[in-house]
Design brief:
The chain is of the alpha/beta class and about 270 residues long. Helix content is about 25%, strand content about 30%. It folds into 2 domains: about 80 residues, no CATH class; about 150 residues, Vaccinia Virus protein VP39 (Rossmann fold, 3-Layer(aba) Sandwich), CATH 3.40.50.150.
Length: about 270
């Protein structure tokens, strides 16, 4: 099956949910109430599809099945295999970090509009970022771009503490309410313009810039502890890449280009016209 058709079919399953009257799947790690359908090996990564019967016109949305399909059919095939990362994406309720009318779309593999012209990163990109950062439980994290607070919650689940800043006060307030409702602590939220730097007297083990920048600000590189990692989506649109900067002893830095992607620039970080 061509890759585009495989992805479309997988998304349809994730969005549709499933009835609960079918036999138990004999395979391990199956979605709830499912039967094995097929393996598709003609894609970049082998894809195992589970289906639960025909999709009637009116069907209750199955959140847990959609979450399962998001992790197993979207994120894992992108070579996201770290158990702590996958467990985090299962644990943090993504649907509670979007507007009520968007909850059925929260698990889809697409940038989801969240207001003020901003979007939520697709699950596959979030999974890749969390894996490459390899966050340890004792590490301190700085996040530039709080958004809905979902990625903030994931970072907090993996690390020791998160300091997150967003330029939109509405995002900061809403994220704070969502995190509090879920009992997620060790997070400091602030509002401000952090495009060139933030909390510059502090050092962090991990820094994540969730919006695109043309170049990675030097101030953030200098805030890394030795052994620290900084992730940013950088470059000149439409060619943007996820980049990982690592600080080594003797004030040496290395940069890896990990994967191509696309997202909106941070406000103020847009390329200047020539």
């Amino acid at each position: 099956m061509p890759q585009a058709r495989t992805r479309a079919f997988t998304q349809a399953l994730a969005l549709a949910g499933a009835p609960r009257n079918h036999k138990k799947n004999p395979h391990s790690h199956n979605p709830p109430h499912s039967v094995y359908l097929a393996d598709f090996v003609g894609t970049r990564c082998p894809t195992r599809i589970y289906f639960t019967g025909f999709l009637p016109k009116m069907m209750a949305f199955d959140t847990e099945l959609a979450r399962f399909n998001m992790v197993e059919q979207q994120i894992r095939p992108w070579d996201v295999l770290d158990k702590r990362v996958l467990d985090t994406l299962f644990k943090i309720p993504r649907e509670q970090f979007v507007a009520a009318e968007q909850r059925n779309l929260a698990f889809s593999d697409t940038p989801l509009p969240i207001g003020f012209g901003e979007t939520l990163l697709p699950p596959v990109v979030e999974g890749r970022i969390l894996q490459v950062l390899n966050i340890a439980p004792q590490e301190r994290i700085l996040e530039i771009g709080t958004g809905t607070g979902f990625f903030t919650a994931c970072l907090a689940n993996l690390g020791n503490s998160v300091h997150s800043v967003d330029i939109h006060p509405e995002f900061t307030a809403a994220a704070g309410e969502r995190l509090k409702a879920l009992g997620i602590e060790r997070v400091v939220l602030e509002t401000g313009d952090a495009v060139t730097g933030w909390a510059q007297n502090e050092r962090f083990d991990v820094i994540v810039i969730t919006g695109a920048v043309q170049t990675i600000p030097e101030s953030y590189r200098q805030q890394l502890n030795v052994g620290g990692r900084l992730f940013a989506i950088a470059g000149q649109a439409p060619i943007l890449s996820g980049r990982l900067v690592t600080r080594h002893p003797d004030d040496r830095f290395t940069t890896e280009n990990l994967f191509e992607t696309a997202t909106k620039y941070l406000i103020g970080a847009e390329p200047k016209p020539h």
